[in-house]
Amino acid sequence: MLLVTARRLVAFAAPVALLAACSGGDAADPVAEGTAAAVAAGEAPPILKEREENFEAIGKAFKAVRGELAADSPDFALIAAKASDINARAAKIQDHFPAGTSTADGFKTEALPAIWEKPEEFKASAQKLVDESAKLASLAPGGDKAAVAAQAMAMGGTCKGCHDKFRLDDEKK
Ligand code: HEC
Fold first, then answer.
1. Ligand 1 in contact with 126 (CB < 6 A)?
2. pLDDT digits (tens, 9 = 90+) for 112-136
């Protein structure tokens, strides 16, 4: 009889422990506490800086591409190198947007909540830049200015496509 009681106790104790693990931890969870403290102090997680720097570098590389194409004799090797740089950076975009880092979370960022509301669309948008920059990188060494310019335009379209939906418009701030 005693044994049965003990077994029952064990059977009941397990789910209770599970529940405690799921719902508890408001005060005891160091990660949650750390994040809350960071938000309270207005401290941005390092990933925000990282992703901004990544986009800034993408912006500079694209500017360099446009600069070359405006010249009489563009440096096509440079365009190819810049396109490759954009390609590598575009591949990182996906990992730069952890949950809780949008404009709605109180950080100084231009990342709209739409990124997390439509994750598949955002992912596809980033992939477009990966694809179009790869095309530009492989086309550039051929030296066909019109074709390279057209591809640079196509790549630029992916920037705008994503910004229109997922980035806070500077002018609307
Ligand atoms: C998949 C979506 C996406 C694509 C594609 C994309 N961007 Fe962005 N871009 C963003 C988002 C979102 C931000 C805001 C990031 C933030 O504030 O945290 C941003 C910010 C920027 C910034 C500002 C960085 C800063 O200092 O805050 C520049 C410059 C930029 N993008 C340039 C470009 C260029 C040039 C391209 C194309 C070659 C491009 N982006 C393609 C989503 C994208």
1. yes
2. 999 999 999 999 999 999 999 999 9
Instruction: Choose the final residue of a domain: 43, 61, 76.
Output: 43
Prediction pTM value = 0.80
Other beta carbons within 10 Å of 22: 8
Mutation choice for ligand 1 from 96, 159, 173, CB with most ligand atoms inside 8 A: 159
pLDDT tens readout for residues 2-16: 554 444 444 444 444
Tokens of 158: 């992916």
What number of CA atoms fall less than 13 Å from residue 129's CA on the CB side? 26
Residues 115 and 149 in one domain: yes
- Is residue 88 located within the same domain as residue 146? yes
Q: Which helix (H) or strand (E) holds 84?
A: helix 76-90
CB 155 within 8 A of CB 132: yes
Q: What is the pLDDT of residue 41?
A: 52
What is the residue range of 28's domain? Answer: 1-43
Q: How many domains does the chain have?
A: 2
